[in-house]
Amino acid sequence: MHRHVLDILACPKCGNDQPIELDVAEQAGDDVITGSLVCPACQTRVPVTNGIPRFAGADAEDFDNFDFQWNKWSAIQIDRLSGHTLSEDRFLADSRWDREWLRGKWILDAGCGAGRFADVAAGLGGACRRLRSQRRGRCLPPHNERSRRARHLHTGVYI
User: Which one, of 65, 40, 38, 37, lies nearest residue 49 by Cα?
Assistant: First the structure.
């Protein structure tokens, strides 16, 4: 997790406007590997494990079947690992975004599954934030770290 992601996060419990604070236990270069995000207003702590903020917590809905599928067949939907362009073609057609427009843009991939569209967007120069709500952090394998442009948050989306 990079510190700059703090600018877009809010406390999941109280939603205050104060910036979330970061308590770092382990860091590798610019990446926070373990630690906690701390709300200065209500003191809610969100663990950061393996570089991923775990907003969903242990009480999140269980998606064991999806975890199994994404671990067993995770590369099938990733174009560059499967030798096709199905995900890229669909991403560009459905979003109607021009390849050049994506460069440097922040892209939010909510419910990212195996991360196929985040992988495409990162390959086209977008800075991706992938969101998923599964209880365990094992369903997105390391091959999805296409570049430092694709980051992962374990959370829910509240509007």
Answer: 37
Task: Kindly report, residue by residue over 26-35, the tens digit of the pLDDT.
Answer: 999 888 989 9
Q: Which of 103, 158, 157, 104 is nearest to 130 (CA)?
A: 157
| CATH of the structural domain 58-159, one choice from 3.10.270.10, 3.40.50.150, 3.30.10.20, 3.20.20.140 | 3.40.50.150
Residue 78: its pLDDT value, please?
85
The encoded tokens of residue 95 equal 């979003």
Neighbours of 105 (CB within 10 A): 13
> Residues spanned by CATH 3.40.50.150 within the chain?
58-159
Instruction: Say whether pTM exceeds 0.90.
Output: no
Q: Which two tokens mark 50?
A: 């393996």
Helix axes 116-123, 86-95, angle to 10 degrees: 80
